[in-house]
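Q: What residues go here?
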């Protein structure tokens, strides 16, 4: 007895055997040969590009290996990571305050936060860094006192605005404008009923925001925030124009002495790629953490569907109403 004879269904009421090829029990997805061909072509092109880059003597890979972990480069890498961490934390905190102000019932707070976001998103980051670095030209002294009244304390602007403080101020204040819109969009993604329910249980507006709204909004806030963090890593390279010793500035200092421009730039490129790769892994882990409720409910639904399919009788095997009447 052949395999086809085993799968052939018995004759129906009219004495006609059912064709097994029309039974959905044995249905399967069609094989996509075009997809396999596309994968093979892409892999071959990638291997060819990598092979040509690796064998190109103009990249001077031995120079890249020599300077990759050199002390000056590693120190500049530490400055880049430190700037990214401090500026991102300040940007998220200030952005959260701005987002709450944008959603507040006070028209003054909404206007002020909107003005801040308009200004810092509408001007280039490089220009902002240069203005902070040259702040002493505009304001030689920083004064603390009552407007149009007595002055209590004053400082020399050059003592306060160093390359480090100018870099942190420029990066953090610029990042806060973008984070404000990201956080505001995340807060708006939460249903209004959540806040109303929290207030019905006696929670204050601030507590409902901390305990109910923000945790649910994190699932919408985390992906764009991860993108902003990766952008911040690359934006720190702009502080080299104000003589801040970050990774790019360290690399530039070296190739200005050795004239090995391309291999030193490749050192910075590889370091940036490594950092962003690690951040991508961390972002994925955080996204899974905040989406665990959704993933759990989705997997439970799939399990229920799978168990229901096992117990269900295929529709094609059930006799029709006409067949029942004939029987």
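A:
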């Amino acid at each position: 007895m052949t395999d086809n004879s085993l799968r052939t269904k018995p004759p129906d009421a009219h004495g006609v055997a059912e064709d097994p090829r029309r039974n959905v029990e044995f249905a399967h997805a069609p094989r996509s040969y075009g997809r396999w061909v596309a994968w093979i072509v892409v892999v071959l092109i990638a291997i060819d590009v990598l092979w040509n880059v690796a064998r190109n003597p103009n990249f001077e890979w031995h120079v890249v290996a020599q300077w990759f972990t050199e002390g000056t480069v590693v120190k500049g890498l530490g400055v880049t990571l430190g700037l990214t961490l401090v500026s991102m934390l300040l940007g998220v905190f200030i952005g959260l305050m701005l987002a709450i102000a944008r959603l507040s019932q006070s028209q003054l707070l909404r206007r002020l936060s909107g003005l801040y976001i308009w200004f810092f998103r509408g001007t280039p980051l490089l220009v902002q860094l240069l203005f902070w670095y040259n702040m002493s030209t505009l304001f030689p002294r920083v004064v603390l006192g009552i407007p149009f009244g007595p002055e209590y304390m004053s400082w020399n602007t050059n003592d306060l605005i160093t390359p480090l403080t100018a870099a942190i101020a420029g990066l953090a204040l610029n990042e806060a404008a973008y984070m404000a819109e990201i956080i505001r969009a995340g807060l708006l993604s939460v249903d209004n009923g959540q806040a109303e329910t929290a207030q019905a249980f006696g929670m204050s507006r601030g507590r409902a925001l901390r305990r109910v709204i923000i945790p649910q909004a994190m699932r919408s806030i985390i992906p764009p925030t991860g993108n902003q963090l990766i952008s911040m890593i690359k934006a720190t390279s702009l502080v080299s124009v104000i003589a801040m010793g970050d990774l790019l500035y360290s690399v530039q200092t070296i190739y200005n002495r050795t004239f090995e421009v391309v291999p030193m730039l490749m050192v910075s490129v590889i370091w940036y790629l490594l950092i962003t790769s690690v951040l991508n892994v961390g972002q994925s882990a955080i996204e899974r953490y905040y989406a665990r409720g959704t993933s759990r409910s989705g997997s439970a639904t799939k399990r229920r569907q799978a168990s229901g399919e096992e117990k269900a009788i295929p529709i094609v095997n059930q006799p029709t109403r006409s067949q029942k009447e004939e029987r």
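A: Context that may help when evaluating the design: The domain at 71-291 is CATH 1.10.3720.10 (MetI-like fold). Strands lie at 141-145, 151-156.
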